[in-house]
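Researcher: Next sequence.
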Amino acid sequence: MLIKTAGIFLLVLLLPIITIAQRYSSERGYEVTGLENASVVGKSCLYGLVACAVGFIICKLSISKDEKGVDKTSNWFFLGLGCFFVAFLFFLPLLSWVEFAVVNLLTLGLAIVVIGSIGILIYGWLKG
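Model: Next structure:
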């Protein structure tokens, strides 16, 4: 009886998730932009790391203290923030691969849970 109840509970719990997932069937980010080769992603990440390092150095050098000990920033600080934004753009191909992997793992996990709950339900009916 407990196994049958657990199977029904899991199915009732998962039905809203499945219907919401099917309702919003928009394209994923990696379907729009496509997945790049590993060499392209590697070069892009290398450029992104260089842009992050340059942005960090610019931001660090543009902050100084005045006579009262308060931090002052110069206009160069915004150039450093711009470098961080450019670095974010370079990391987009890696982000599309991460999204691809996460979506596939979540879909696989949901399928395993649904199949398992149906199996528990059938086992409960057979043991009856």
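Model: The longest helix spans residues 92-127. Strands lie at 63-65, 71-73.
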